[in-house]
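SAMPLE LOG
Freezer: B-3
Tube label: C17
Construct: single chain, 405 aa
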Amino acid sequence: MAGIPTEKPSFGVLDDVKVVFAAMEEAIPRACNIMADWGADVTWLENTGYGDTVRDAKNVVQAERRNCRSVQLNQFTPGGKEALLAILKDADIFMESSKGGTWDRKGFTDEDMWAVNPKLIIIHCSGYGKYGEPDRVKRAAYDGTVGPYAGFTCQNGTPEQPMITMPYSGDYINSYLLIGASLAALRKAERTGKGESIDWAMYEGIMYMSQYFMVDYLNDGIVWPRAGARNQNLCGIGVYQCSDGFIAVNLFGIKQNKWMIEELGLGEHWGTPELPEDTASLWLSMPIAQEFEKRFEAWLLERKRLDAEATLAEHAIAAQIVYEFEDMVKDTHMAKRGNFVEWTTADGDTFKGLSPMPRFEQTPGQIWRPAPHKGQDTFDVLTKAGLTPERIAELEAEGAIRCGE
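STRUCTURE (predicted):
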């Protein structure tokens, strides 16, 4: 641990942004981790007991807590509140996740934070928000429960059974939206000098991103069926089987449809009232749809997946064989873009993960430190926040903080 840097080097588009978060597992932490890859100075608050439950997933914690500092504290004790307010004095963004209204109920308010930092952006993330039906607001929530509430899960799976989408897509959808919302609010604070508080309901983030088919119901009463590995309402879109594996196809476009129709021996239908010459999408409601799908499935089954992919690509049809992880690590394009990288963990082991993305060409992201041990940075962060070593020792004796393992 002695060789792990404590001073963040200057890099990235968020080099001057300081982020603090108190949350477990995925949605908020992943958002903050991405911002850390982009250059933000990120402090991860863990409780003084077990810490973040993500530590049970030993590889995930290495991948998704790199570039972060770990401080252990109990912010709902007087000493823990003192410590956190000291940390927040020069922070730009603070994010926390808990049941709606938890911080207010426990006596740690937005006004407390703004008293020491009027420009602070505060995000309170919960499953269902801070207000609404009281019973709903107080419920525990995870990715696997807010997705079903938000009308996301009902759109995925087979006609017989809705299915969750992995890995934790609801959490990650919220992660990306949290980044956008927090940086938008930060721009406002920089312009006006006034902070912002965001009441973030995870189900709303998921619902916001899953409205594509929902608006057909809201406006026309249409409920598209769950189609398993295929599209709900279009031909030639989804995952199909080749003779040696699976391929994903997205058949769109006039010339693409014309070629495919003719290739499948259905050319006489092109240019008819049921299939006009300007047909860009082949709808499952068309009379030809069932026969098209039957022939398309047979066409793919006669071919190896790489041959099918090459033929479709030659005719400007989007297609991609379904990669397994082993295919990805062998892929030359990913290798040339440096998508997979290695770094050294806090214990001196070599860890393989993903490089910072996307690519900011003028101010690239980087990995400057591995995931820290629990509370590894408590003393350093609180010292920089203005607490004396003596006060830090008192707070640790009180159980308000922990200074590393």
